[in-house]
Fold this sequence. Notes:
3 domains, seven-stranded mixed sheet
Amino acid sequence: MTTLLQYLKSAGKLVNIFLLIVVTFVYAMFQGGFVSWFLFYSFIPFGLYSFFLSLYSLKDFEVRRLTNNTEYVAGERFEATITIKRKIPFPLMYVIAEELLPPQLQKCEQSKKSKVILFPWFKRNLTYQYVFDAIPRGEHILEGVRIKTGDLFGLIEKELVYPIHEEFLIYPQYVDIVYRQLENRFEQGMTSSNVRLQRDTAIAIGVRDYKPGDRFSWIDWKASARKNDIMTKEFEQQQSHDVVIFMDRSKSMQFEQVVTFTASLARAILKKGAQLSFLSIGEDQSIYPLRSGETQQQLIYYHLAKVKDNSTISFSQIVESEIKKIYQPVTFMLVTNKLSFDMIHMVGRFSMRNADLMLFVVKEKSTQLSAEEREVLDTVRRHNVFVKVVYEGHYGDVFFEVSKS
Length: 405
């Protein structure tokens, strides 16, 4: 039905062109004189151009998109070059080319616009570029490019969308953080149960007598031959611990800062060699079990690239519900951007478990805590919980300040 209406509309426009030619001819015949005949002959080229333009197919166009990269981090420069090629050099007075941007990109500032008007005339190759100086985080889908052209009087207009489907996943920004454990907590003995002892088999610091349970690969054969007894290598013992991060996905204007700090925190912990579990619960539920290494970081970053602040349940309720499922000794880290009174009850749950808890409150630059937040902050600290207000631009210093406190 839609196709039929389009054909009828095109036919109606052709009829209008024909009628205009006829009207100007009849006017010249009856009126006579230079002016009337000049009007008739002047209109004929435009009428014929409109007629041939109606027969010209935009399917002759070949449209391509080329970007300056395949993977991006939020805030990076995004450049796309649109190339239009056509086989028949039919004279076109103008061409309007427009990239069909998703809603989240339509609101972003462009130093070079994605919608332009070109004047090709007989040119077969056309090129234009659009630029986002700072591409936002998220999953962006480019569906295609719309091409529109027409005649001088608007009697004939042609439009066609060229499907060039391409998906871009913009990963979150991160800041280099040197992760440090809470030294003062070790001195008080509060985290002794949360620490796993691992032997670094790459660093041998001495030898000792063999004990049942020692691995065969630990035997030092040279020392055993000298002492005529089985001797095993003594390795350096390193402290490492397991960390669980909860990220607050409540609706907030500062959610991007929460994502950036969470990405930086996760990267720093995994880079240190610890095992990390990550929990992010909103309309979708994403729980990543304890793992270490580059693969875990890639999984978390992939989630953070697409995550949205769409949680309908309070952050405290989510945390209280999920910590019941965690039995092994871990260090809990909560990342949020606001302090509310229901967090006091949540912190009490951690205190009952004698769990190691760190609470990070992420704020924009020069943002002051409200009176309610200051009251909650003081109350939570009385539970012997480490609470840190982290301001944008100072993420890298968070654990240096922790070690001094």
